Amino acid sequence: MNYQGIIHRYKDFLSVTDKTPVATLKEGNTPLIPVQGLLEWLGAPHLKVFLKYEGMNPTGSFKDRGMTMAISKALEDKSKAVICASTGNTSASAAAYAAQAGLRCVVLIPEGNIALGKLSQALVHGAEVFSVEGNFDTALTMVRAMSETGTVTLVNSLNPFRIEGQKSGAFEIVDDLGEPPDCHFIPVGNAGNITAYWKGYKEYHAAKKCKKLPKMMGYQAAGSAPIVLGKPVLEPDTIATAIRIGNPASWQQAEAARNESGGQIDSVTDEEILEAYQALASKEGVFCEPASAASVAGLRKYVHAHKDFAKSKATVVCVLTGHGLKDPDRAIAVAPRPRTVKPSVEAIMRELNI
Ligand code: AN7
């Protein structure tokens, strides 16, 4: 069958009707990749680990699942403009879907802390981009105030249709595996996605599509870990700019997901994130952005702290939320440089020593 995007595939679980105008770039239906090369590095040879590679969405991140819903509903409501604050991926996705839908798109980003790929997307899709001298949390407060005037539709995950669309990731995992995993590892920034996945698993469970529920395991960056610390972080800091967020909008929902599922929300250091980022790329062939690697860094931290789990055959899904090409500067900073040589076959053969 010709795949038509998450609204078409999961319409029975979404608040749409036959009259809803659908803006779609055929998001979703992303690969669930079984891990092989990484198991030894993880220290858990018998675990069944899968990567939900959300970088394969049309704009390169999981945000597209929520944006197809948010933009479609904005069209249904006859909105003319959408607005968001963003660490990058939300703005890239909003800009693309708004371009397709013919809506104006206004974007507020934190000055100096947005990966190049994401900025290029927002600009090329024609969004009206403002670089705010402040962090994401400040920008989010501003767009909330601007949307309260009623003239522009907010498409951050405070918009319930965003969460609605993003829960489709959980549906796909259950449809692929037959059941949810034992543990679901996921990066946490503004905390919308962990909220959405937990909602999706619970709805599928209630609809008898599966018999169990996973433990929700969320990971913040150590320098931006308000939920772990139990208080907002005024000046969040991490190389994982996507999750450089000090006061998450869906804080309470994330705690509810953790508590109801018997999971945890913990933090991983930038060093642990970058180790996972490189291991994924070099041992598994999967290129994600740094924030995404927080899920795998979290799994490794958990494995090291729980010997029984490390020896078990538990099923684990790690969500890789965004594509590595979003942040080419980081890849180039951590990987070896190209070697400059004379245009000579012999010179290269000598260098290679083969
Ligand atoms: C790659 O784009 O908040 O916990 O403004 O881009 O649902 O916020 C991005 C977040 C994880 C965290 N991984 O998800 C934004 C933005 C990537 C991300 C997260 C984001 P949430």
Order of helices and strands: HEHEHEHEHEHEHHEHEHHEHHHEHH
Biggest β-sheet strands, sense, barrel: 6 strands, mixed
Strand order of the largest sheet: 1-2-10-7-8-9
Broad shape: globular
**Distinct helical segment count:** 16
Low-confidence stretches: none
Question: Mean of the pLDDT scores?
Answer: 97
Each distinct ligand: ligand AN7
Helix content: 40-55%
Q: How many strands in all?
A: 10
The N- and C-terminal alpha carbons lie at a distance of 48 Å
User: What fraction of residues sit in β-strands?
Assistant: 5-15%
Rg = 20 Å
Structure classification: alpha/beta
Your description of this structure?
The longest helix has 16 residues, at 290-305. The protein has 354 residues and is an alpha/beta fold. The protein has helices at residues 6-9, 39-42, 63-76, 89-101, 116-124, 136-147, 160-166, 168-177, 192-206, 226-229, 251-261, 270-284, 290-305, 307-311, 328-334, 345-352; strands at residues 32-34, 48-53, 81-85, 104-110, 128-132, 153-154, 183-187, 215-221, 264-268, 315-320. The strands form 2 sheets. A 6-stranded mixed β-sheet has the order 1-2-10-7-8-9, with helices on both faces. A 4-stranded parallel β-sheet has the order 5-4-3-6, with helices on both faces. The chain is globular. The structure holds ligand AN7. Ligand AN7 is lined by residues 61, 86-90, 157, 187-193, 242-243, 289, 291-292, 321-322.
Question: Can I get a quick summary?
Answer:
This protein is of the alpha/beta class.
